[in-house]
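FAQ

Q: What does a record look like?
A: Structure on top, sequence underneath. For example:
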């Protein structure tokens, strides 16, 4: 029995005189009925006899299949062409145009986590009534749709992804207290090479996301995350057994490539599972991994290096890596809806013996494999270079992230040389950063969320991504200010608890920056959310790699007071005026850049769909 449907019928005669550029998302072809959503709680019967009847002729079935596929592609093609031919943003006066037209065009795609190139809602559910063999979700409340999962399933998925993102930063920073011992055994005299032992791991995070994203879009989150964590495991083992500097640097870099996947795909998992209102809290939970990781690693490593041997730093990394890799391989579920639908279609084909069951992506995704790789690899770079909001916020995030790794790399020198602490206590001093993170996560989560909800109410219930940025300037004041005081108090050998307090204050401010920008980058254009986050990850990882390499020379010449003053002034210059400016004017810039990106993507969609239409015509002939 077919499910009950709420439907919308388009009348071509009534709409024929309207301009397609103004009736975006409208279908002007045959008067087909387009489904809006399936009634909740009802499951469709995909058996061949139930769909067409036992007496249906094969020729009639083939003809109906051809017509329904042609209708679907025609609807999607006209939607794509409507955006591709929209030139409204060419005029300066329309630079602040509202995004409503885009929302209408893509059938409210901002509510879905789609970066699949198809202008359709909820993975093609709207076409269920015209194609009975189209495998879709069973209504808006389908429990198999990731955003409708039970709380337990969502928590389990987020905790496992957070564990994955914890492993990578732990491995990146755990070596910091051991660099002197490694340098002594391998005969490393150059300070840059010593710093490179730690930061080359972060360099991999600036490169790998460009290549990891295509795999996660093509094969799903689960397989990419699980393979990456085992890839990191293998090369962490290589670090355990490394016998010279070259081997250590190569293995560290390759381990970093494995660790980059959770950091770039994690935002996609958040988008798969949660809507805008719920995401802030879960972003803070997810943020535990990349923020606490760099702190926990050196605390453990300090005492290990002092009491056992530096190689045990890597053996501990390997144990942590292996435990979380095993847990993830056993319990992490796929969250990417196109892959879940394809798995559902595969199971139904086997169950019903109907080989013609397909998803919307099997029918209408005309993008080639090479084309998909090209799009995913180049889009983060385009966003970073040509989207003013991504470039500006990415610069701010990159500076603070670079300063965070600067602290991590200089902590052993500050506490060991200036304060005379042994290696174990030097590692323990990293707990100051950890305290700042732990206090900052619940504080900023509540503070930012309350402010966000107040602005929504004030704006008549309409949310805007810029509402996420109203408190970003706090981090622009607090982080550089804390760094400034930390540097001068450390240089003047003020009682150790004072610089420790201001290093905690710095990490407290980092949480504000992370939550504001991460949420904004997801909200500002959900269609390109994964690429936007990847662009920021590339930028910040480059800074996290570079700062520890050249900054020690500045500290050697200028001291920690004036050295940190220079970095603090850069932070103030970028961190105070820019957050205020983007909060006031970001909507105009965002809409202008997003519309240009949507139009470019729509042109490619239209081209791919036109090719599919031509193939259908050839099949008919």
């Amino acid at each position: 029995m077919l499910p009950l449907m709420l439907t919308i019928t388009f009348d071509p005669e009534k709409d024929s005189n309207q301009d397609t550029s103004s009736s975006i998302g409208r279908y002007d072809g045959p008067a087909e009925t387009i489904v809006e959503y399936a009634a909740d709680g009802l499951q469709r019967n995909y058996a061949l006899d139930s769909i067409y009847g036992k007496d249906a002729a094969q020729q009639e079935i083939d003809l109906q299949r051809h017509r329904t596929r042609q209708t679907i592609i025609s609807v999607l093609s006209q939607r794509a062409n409507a955006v591709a031919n929209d030139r409204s943003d060419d005029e300066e006066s329309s630079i602040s145009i509202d995004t409503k037209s885009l929302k209408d065009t893509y059938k409210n795609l901002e509510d879905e986590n789609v970066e699949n190139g198809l202008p359709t809602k909820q993975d093609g559910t709207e076409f269920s009534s015209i194609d009975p063999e189209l495998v879709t979700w069973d209504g808006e409340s389908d429990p198999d749709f990731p955003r409708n999962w039970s709380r337990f399933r969502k928590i389990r998925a987020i905790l496992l992804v957070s564990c994955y993102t914890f492993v990578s930063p732990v491995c990146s920073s755990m070596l910091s207290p051991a660099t002197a011992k490694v340098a002594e055994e391998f005969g490393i005299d150059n300070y840059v090479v010593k710093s490179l032992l730690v930061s080359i791991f972060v360099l991999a995070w600036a490169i790998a996301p460009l290549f990891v994203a295509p795999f996660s879009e093509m094969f799903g989150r689960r397989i990419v995350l699980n393979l990456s964590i085992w890839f990191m495991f293998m090369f962490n083992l290589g670090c355990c057994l490394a016998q010279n500097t070259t081997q250590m640097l190569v293995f560290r870099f390759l381990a970093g490539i494995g660790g980059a996947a959770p950091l770039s795909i994690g935002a996609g998992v958040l988008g798969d599972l949660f809507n805008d209102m719920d995401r802030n809290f879960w972003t803070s939970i997810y943020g535990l991994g990349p923020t606490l990781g760099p702190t926990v690693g050196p605390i453990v490593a300090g005492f290990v290096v002092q009491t056992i041997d530096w190689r045990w730093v890597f053996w501990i990394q390997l144990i942590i890596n292996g435990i979380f890799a095993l847990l993830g391989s056993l319990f992490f579920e796929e969250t990417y809806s196109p892959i879940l639908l394809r798995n559902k279609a595969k199971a139904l084909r086997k169950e019903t013996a109907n080989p013609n069951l397909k998803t919307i992506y099997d029918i209408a995704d005309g993008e080639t494999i090479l084309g998909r790789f090209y799009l995913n690899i180049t889009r983060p770079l385009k966003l970073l270079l040509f989207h003013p909001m991504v470039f500006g916020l990415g610069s701010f995030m990159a500076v603070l992230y670079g300063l965070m790794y600067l602290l991590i790399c200089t902590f052993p020198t500050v506490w060991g040389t200036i304060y005379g602490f042994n290696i174990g206590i030097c590692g323990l001093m990293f707990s100051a950063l950890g305290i700042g993170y732990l206090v900052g996560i619940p504080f900023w989560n509540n503070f930012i969320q309350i402010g966000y909800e107040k602005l929504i109410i004030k704006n008549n219930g309409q949310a805007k991504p810029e509402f996420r940025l109203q408190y970003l300037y706090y981090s622009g004041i607090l982080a550089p200010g804390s760094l400034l005081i930390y540097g001068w108090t450390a240089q003047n050998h003020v009682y150790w608890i004072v610089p420790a307090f201001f290093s905690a204050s710095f990490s407290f401010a980092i949480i504000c920056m992370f939550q504001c920008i991460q949420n904004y980058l997801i909200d500002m254009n959900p269609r390109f959310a994964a690429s936007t986050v990847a662009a920021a990850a590339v930028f910040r990882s480059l800074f996290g790699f570079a700062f520890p390499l050249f900054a020690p020379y500045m500290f050697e010449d200028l001291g920690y007071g004036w050295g940190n003053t220079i970095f603090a002034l850069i932070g103030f210059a970028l961190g105070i005026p820019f957050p205020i400016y983007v909060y006031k004017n970001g909507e105009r810039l965002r809409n202008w850049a997003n519309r240009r990106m949507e139009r470019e993507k729509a042109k490619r969609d239209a081209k791919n769909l036109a090719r599919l239409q031509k193939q259908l015509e050839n099949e008919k002939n």
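Q: Is there anything notable about this one?
A: The chain is about 70% helix and 0% strand.
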